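A quick aside before the break. I want you to see a complete sequence-to-structure record at least once, exactly as it would be stored in a machine-readable document. Don't worry about memorizing anything.
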Amino acid sequence: MTELAERGADAPFAPDWVSPPGDTILDLLEERGWTQQQLADRLGYSPKHVNQLIKAKVPLSEDAAIRLQNVLGAPVGFWLTREAQYRERLAVLDSAKRQSVMVPWLDRFPLKDLMDAGVLPKRRIDAKSKPRLVGELLGFFGVATPDQWQTQYGCMELAFRRSREDQADVAAISAWLRMGERAAEKLDGPAYDPARFKAALSHIRGLTCQAPRDFQPQMQNLLREAGVAFVLVPALPRTHVSGVARWLNAHRPLIQLSLYGKQNDRFWFSFFHEAAHIHLHSQQKKSVFLDDPSKAGSSSKEEKDANAWARDFLISPSDAAKLADIPKTKASIAGFAQSIGMHPGIVVGRMQHDGLLDVRWLNDLKVSFAFTTKS
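That is the input. The structure line, written in tokens, reads:
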């Protein structure tokens, strides 16, 4: 198998050798039959300096490029480009050596899943490719070394407000959070406006009967105008996170939802649960609320407050008081849902949660969502 076949036809050519401008100088000297002393005499440099220039022990300066143009004929741009390419290649090779030492850091991450999600280029995960994977993963996180990752993301665990005890894989969670950050970076918008956010949520509540293709762009626009970034990011294994609410900076909150288990009752409760964190806990801008409201766990006061707010915002306490008296039929539940402007699947989910309806009943009133992750 050829080297090209091994690395893939579309992969960039990245040899493990480097050629300095001095190689070109030597080739031209050989063509002319000159010695280094003769070249030094024509350039006006000492023989020692010419030798150091050829061996790349000194950089090829603008002055040297002009002199080489006059003596050897190649233009100034050629010599400066040759020098720049050489220095760049040296830096790449030096980086590869340093990254080879960082390879154990990769073991913390679900690399194959990140490749499947389009975060990392797909390639074989072996000893030869791992140093390059280190560089690609560092680039994804926007940090220079694993030490900076630890400072920026590894230590983020201190800010986690977990809804489940098994939300413990900090590396996988940090990757999913970073995917959300990158998606949010593509969204513009004004600073957060609490009043507009509350109005947007009231409007969004009225969208629960629509299909994702209809309500998703409306949600994006309403939240953007309120200064809230909203992104849908495919779930990563080992995260156990359905959604997150956090502040990217002092003026920019983010609601990030994953795409697994998204029947409409769970989706809407998850969304309003995260919205509750932004609405109720805006003073905790350093907190990262990791949520899976569909699962039981060690809920903090903030989690309980967000659950209660989302529950009551979707179905008001006065309307919820009527749920026990609704006949357990599709027609009755659909009629009640219509009377409160809510999708019947959400009503079914609430009745099941409250023990008013067996979890196996009337699930065909729920709808499974399929989303686009494009902003």
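Two observations worth writing down. The mean pLDDT is 87. Residues 34 and 51 are 13 Å apart (CA to CA). We'll return to this after the break.
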